Amino acid sequence: MDAKRPLLSRMKGGAAFLLPLLTALTSACAHGGRASSSLSVGGARPAWVDGESPRWPRSAFVLGVGSADDENTAVERARGEVARVFSATISVDTSVSETESTKGAGGKQARAFSQEVAETVRSATQKVLEGLEIVARWKDPSVGRTYALAALDKAQALLSVEEKLHELDQESARYQAQLAQASDRFERAKAAAKLLALAKPRAELDAERRVLGDASPQGGPDAGAVRADAAKALAALDVVVAAGGEGADEVTTGVISGLNAAGMTAKSGAPSDKCDLMAQTQVAVQPADAGDPRWQRSRATASVSLQDGREGKTFARFDLSAREDSADAGEARRRALATLAKKTSDSVTQAIKDFFANQ
User: Fold this and answer.
1) Where are the chain's structural domains?
2) Is residue 103 exposed (0-12), middle (13-18) or buried (19+ Cβ within 10 Å)?
3) Which residue, 74, 187, 321, 338, could crosslink 301 as a Cys pair with Cβ 3.0–4.6 Å?
């Protein structure tokens, strides 16, 4: 990975903090400021309980109302309602555990580009939600129900989002320049893969910007043009799929489908063929005991390796399997191979994206 790349957040973490992420982010300002509003008991029912407040208009604030039998739960639910607005962006981190990869270089570990991009978005969302405050609390003594109002200042939050968007746009511009200047198709593919990796988180942050009330056109890169240029660069690679064994045709279809999803075209060939990328797979299908005489079971397996054809080095290797049952043995076989092909497709797509994104 390019050590000079300014990309953004270098926080430690990963999948371990995903589950408590919303709680941690929305509790960031549980103390100080208006967040320390005292509980009001009885009196007229506040307008904000029903979702509207003249004091905190929705034109200027993102609001969340929570209710519960106890005050603390009501507060957390109110925070959660605001955070829910940004849940699509936060969910970007759910892919970290799948896409995170490391590569050794002199005993050192390099973090995956895809994880860094996800952390960029998460750090932006975290900064946005740090402005979230509990501005009012009220208890209805007639039913013993407590209500809390959470408010997020849109103008303040928008500054954080626009800052991160600007950084992502600078990053994209750098890879766009590399794509335009590179003459080697492999170098072009590397730049293209990074551009595509940046496209989704940028779209997520842009969605946050609109949630916060800024619907004006942005001066960032033309997303459609970027995707088109990147797709063209990836499709220019010479990719060969070589498969053997029973069920090879079905799994080859899965491999090619996975390559297509990563933006590449592929053709069937032999392991000795010269190419930019080589995908090899060995497939086997055999009957298995279903544990019930009324059912026939088939188990299909595939060993897959992906190689950099220029250097003949394998950069990804994985074994996959699938088993399916049917009253008919032939149908069980067909189902097992179809399931295996789908698994192979998904695994190939992810491995290819990781390979190029982390070059």
Assistant:
1) 15-157, 162-234, 238-357
2) middle
3) 321
- 326: its two tokens: 């049917």
Q: How far apart are CA 295 and CA 159, in angstroms?
A: 61
| Strand, coil or helix: 296 | strand
| 3-class SS of residue 45 | coil
pLDDT in tens, 281-337: 999 999 999 999 999 999 999 999 999 888 888 989 999 999 999 999 999 999 999
- Contacts for 308 with CB less than 8 Å, ≥ 6 apart: 276, 277, 314, 315
Output the six-digit token pair for 227.
């995707």
State the alpha helices, DSSP H only, in the chain: 21-26, 71-85, 87-90, 96-99, 113-129, 154-181, 185-211, 223-235, 248-261, 329-357
How many residues are there in the chain?
359
* Angle, CA 259 vertex, CA 333 and CA 348 arms, to 5°: 65
CA 281 to CA 268: how far, in whole Å?
A: 11
The span from the CA of 321 to the CA of 302, in Å, is 6
**Taking CA 326 as the corner, what is the angle to CA 325 and CA 331, rounded to the nearest 5 degrees?**
105
* Tokens read off for 164: 């991160």
Interval 192-237: pLDDT, tens: 888 887 877 787 778 788 878 776 766 666 767 777 888 888 888 8
Q: Which CATH number fits domain 238-357: 3.30.420.10, 3.90.550.10, 3.40.50.150, 3.30.160.150?
A: 3.30.160.150
pTM over 0.70: no
Measured CA distances, 342 to 130, 144, 228, 246, 356 (Å) = 41, 53, 26, 17, 22
